[in-house]
Design goal:
Layout (H helix, E strand, L loop, with lengths): L1 H29 L11 E4 L5 H14 L5 E3 L8 E5 L7 E14 L3 H6 L6 H8 L6 H6 L1 H5 L1 E5 L6 H7 L10 E3 L4 H9 L3 E6 H4 L11 E3 L18 H10 L6 E9 L4 H12 L15
Parallel strand pairs: 1-2, 1-3, 5-6, 5-7
Antiparallel strand pairs: 3-9, 4-7, 4-8, 4-9
Length: 293
């Protein structure tokens, strides 16, 4: 862990810090001032699965820098910082953790009954979730998969592309229906459709307080090793899963890096990013994210 922290800090100091400082200086010069202390509120945009963690950062950072204010961005306006996934097209990202994406359905639904005991491997998951000429005939033969409706996210912050890329597919290849807006709406879609199946990031699947899966959701059974079966069942806890995923390679689970992209930089933003890497990552597990490997 010390090696990881040192590597991240070194990357930041050699690359991001100099660029961030230069861009911040340029902004101040354009505005006709060299004053790097700015009382303007800095805004952070984050998808719902990362928002509780970002809110924790803001609260803890304020204790160390009481004169500096960061807040969650509201609406669609310009923001200073964005929490993004690795495969999105951003040139400047500071990574702080990883998120895991698991297939889910509604608790006690018809879809849950149909998939009970299936223990799906990579091939079966591809057949269930994606359109592909190579296995469309297999889907038609499997009446269970043909009956189920797949729900996938469609906006820029969705984990849909992360899930698809894990199986060598594109997000445009999903079967079923696309849901616009935040991925939390995928859970809502499942609640309304007894034959619905989807996927989501761990913080959207688990209750962060109880550490158990949300009452209205159920994990789709995966083909994992026997010693991991309990962790990947509805009886497992969020902490069980985080431990299993950090210590074992499970090819059926999509893992994606999560980072912060910088839109508007100044000295205070730079200090905040330094703090996130030094202190903010210790909250990853608490809020359902994996530590960087």
């Amino acid at each position: 862990m010390k090696k990881i922290a040192f590597t991240i800090a070194l990357i930041l100091s050699l690359g991001l810090n100099s660029k961030v400082w230069a861009e911040g200086k340029k902004v101040n010069e354009v505005n006709g001032t060299n004053n790097t202390t700015n009382t303007t509120v800095r805004t952070i945009k984050a998808p719902r699965f990362a928002r509780p963690l970002v809110e924790k950062w803001i609260k803890e950072y304020a204790k160390t820098q009481p004169g500096v204010e960061f807040q969650i961005a509201k609406g669609q306006g310009n923001t200073d910082l964005n929490v993004v996934l690795e495969d999105k097209d951003f040139s400047q990202i500071v990574y702080f953790g990883e998120t895991a994406v698991l297939p889910i359905t509604a608790r006690s639904s018809e879809a849950a009954r149909l998939l009970e005991g299936k223990h799906l491997n990579n091939k079966k998951l591809k057949q269930l979730f994606f359109l592909n000429d190579d296995f469309d005939e297999d889907v038609k033969k499997n009446k269970t998969f043909e009956t189920i409706t797949i729900y996938s996210g469609s906006n820029a912050t969705s984990v849909a592309s992360s899930f698809a890329h894990n199986f060598g597919e594109e997000s445009s290849s999903f079967r079923g229906k696309r849901i616009s807006g935040d991925d939390l709406f995928l859970n809502t879609a499942l609640a309304k459709d007894p034959l619905g199946v989807s996927f989501n990031a761990l913080p959207n699947i688990f209750d962060l307080e109880s550490r158990h899966i949300k009452d209205n959701l159920s994990l789709v059974g995966l083909d994992v090793k026997k010693d991991l079966a309990e962790s990947f069942s509805d009886n497992g806890t969020l902490d069980d899963l985080l431990t299993a995923l950090e210590n074992s390679k499970v090819s059926e689970v999509a893992i994606e890096k999560v980072g912060i992209s910088v839109n508007n930089a100044d000295d205070e933003v730079n200090k905040f990013l330094d703090w996130v890497l030094a202190q903010g990552t210790k909250y990853n597990h608490e809020f359902g994210l994996l530590n960087l490997k």
